[in-house]
Amino acid sequence: MVVLSQPPTLDFNQYSLLRSTCKPTASFADIPEIDLSDPNAKFHIVKACEEFGFFKLVNHGVPVELMTKLEDESLCFFKLSKSEKDKARTPHPLGYGSNGDKGWIEYLLLNANPLPIFSHDFLCAATEYVTAVKKLSCEVVELIAEGLKMERRNAISKLLKDEKADCCFRVNHYPPCPEMQGLSGLNNMIGFGEHTDPQILSILRSNNSTGLQICLRDGAWVSVPADAAAFFVNVGDVLQVMTNGRFKSVKHKVVVDPNRERVSMIYFGGPPLSEKITPLPEVLKDGEESLYKEFTWWEYKTAAYKSKLADYRLGAFEKSPIC
Ligand SMILES: C=C1C[C@]23C[C@@]1(O)CC[C@H]2[C@@]12CC[C@H](O)[C@@](C)(C(=O)O1)[C@H]2[C@@H]3C(=O)O
Ligand SMILES: O=C(O)CCC(=O)C(=O)O
Ligand SMILES: [Fe+2]
């Protein structure tokens, strides 16, 4: 029998943390929208990665039923009792997790290469979804290579296609929060604190609830309008290094409306652990030097997992300027 879980409860510290850090933010209609069927998509993607480190992807070819099937399966999991869900807590960081220092969230974090056996129906839906999104992520980075006029169209995609590629997949659930609903003046709270994603790129899909916010170059936070049929793509820290800072890893966070349930599914495309991360030679102009020290993805990931969510993780890997 499936037992519905009790809504999570807030203690005083969590409550102050969640409410104190959010201010209302304007919805931002100018998020770059890339139509994958547009022959110039590659140039628009490069421009969006340079200006925002973020874009919306439409006409991507992934059937919406594949998305909703996994969303439904995920909700079946999150509706289980706490003790059932706790059975999916595996050694940190993978498996089921909740709240912690991130915000008002519970999640499943899975290794995408290959996906672990979980429940049969969840596994089928997740496998189908991850296969489609992985293919899409390779298409996107191949367009990036073309847009950057690189000879090796597969310079980045070969890392994601590698059998040892360190990719992971996450489903986030931001449950409605009854304790917040009754409080006047509070119509939003931190679901996932501000951070950048460490990998090459992330592909996100959410249900029709808003919540995702990105930080623009001038430091302003803007809210991304929800679109359950689209994907949203983030430049990650590794892609920032591979483009020698030409693309910026976008700072983002989730601020949720306590009256609405949000579900998001994110594929994080990372390279093999042993891969040396350096700027792609094709991206460097004559005489341009790398802004970063050489490191492997394993070294970066290890350091990232020791850091706090909001830390500027690339800082430790930047070369000090020569005066
Ligand atoms: C606090 C942390 C959570 C995180 C690992 C980290 O130490 C810093 C980066 C965080 C992040 C952000 C993007 C992804 O959601 C994630 C899975 C990742 O690879 O880096 C999370 C990590 C996590 O939740 O375990
Ligand atoms: O849940 C979301 O919409 C975004 C979550 C996120 O940024 C992450 O999991 O890294
Ligand atoms: Fe993220």
Structural class: alpha+beta
Strand content: 15-25%
Structurally, how many domains make up the residues? 1
**Inertia-based shape:** globular
End-to-end gap? 68 Å
Number of helices: 9
Q: How are the strands of the largest sheet arranged? A: 1-2-10-7-12-5-4-3
Spatial extent as radius of gyration: 19 Å
CATH architecture: Sandwich
Mean pLDDT, as a whole number?
88
SS elements, strand count:
14
- Characterize the largest beta sheet: strand count, sense, and whether it forms a barrel: 8 strands, mixed
Helical coverage, percent range: 25-40%
Named once each, the bound ligands are: ligand L4NPZUNZ, 2-oxoglutaric acid, fe (ii) ion
Poorly predicted runs are 1-13
In N-to-C order, the SSE pattern is HEHEHHEEHHEHEEEEEHEEEEH
CATH homologous superfamily descriptor: B-lactam Antibiotic, Isopenicillin N Synthase, Chain
Characterise this structure:
This protein has 323 residues and is an alpha+beta fold. The chain has a single domain (25-177, 187-306), classed as B-lactam Antibiotic, Isopenicillin N Synthase, Chain (Jelly Rolls, Sandwich). The protein contains nine helices and 14 strands. The strands form three sheets. An eight-stranded mixed beta sheet has the order 1-2-10-7-12-5-4-3. A four-stranded antiparallel beta sheet has the order 6-11-8-9. A two-stranded antiparallel ribbon has the order 13-14. A hairpin with a 5-residue loop joins strand 8 (212-215) and strand 9. Residues 93, 109, 168, 170, 195, 197-198, 268, 304-305, 307, 309 line the site of ligand L4NPZUNZ. Its EC number is 1.14.11.13. One of its GO terms (biological process) is gibberellin catabolic process. It holds the Pfam family 2OG-FeII_Oxy. It is an enzyme of class 1 (oxidoreductase).
